[in-house]
From TrEMBL:
It comes from the Eukaryota. This is Uncharacterized protein. It comes from Haptolina brevifila. The lineage of its organism: Eukaryota, Haptista, Haptophyta, Prymnesiophyceae, Prymnesiales.
Amino acid sequence: GGETFGLAVAEFSVHNRPVLTSSIHDDNGFGRMHLDCLSAKGLGSYFYKDHKSLVDLLLRFDRTAKGDFNAYRSFEPTQVMAIFEKVFLGAPPPPPTITSTSTATS
């Protein structure tokens, strides 16, 4: 199975290194966070599904390839703290407007 937010995967990606990982998991979708992050970045070509595809991936892997492999940029402190500030420290929402819809009858 995969890791929901594997630190080894995230740390490797943050250091701008391609991550090779299996796309096959048997955890009912709970261990997909790393797959979702890497896929969103367009790094699905580094996924393998079986022994043959892993061997193929390793044989064609270019250790000198340059690119932006950081799929976790949206989890860096600046972005996370901006969301935290907006949600928890920002101005509270205005109170709801109460309107009377009932009519008095005699």
